[in-house]
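User: Second chain of the day. Same drill as before.
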Amino acid sequence: MKLAVRVTWDKRDDLGYIYFKEIQPGSVAHTFPCPPDDVCGHTINLDFDTEGRLVGIELIRASKVLPAEFLSAPQN
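Assistant: Same format as last time:
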């Protein structure tokens, strides 16, 4: 089985998302906002499915968090 992580970045809104699996609308059962003090002042949300598995990470102001190679990669 091929495992792949996909990273997207919305430049206009400066939002990033790290996908551990493809997410269907409504498949995120719980979002846990990480306290900014615990993640160097950044706003990061962890998304979990109905079985409690981490399916993605949302990054607010992603350009401050993601490495430059992710920000310059073509988005699909």
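The helical segments are 68-72.

User: Great, on to the next one.
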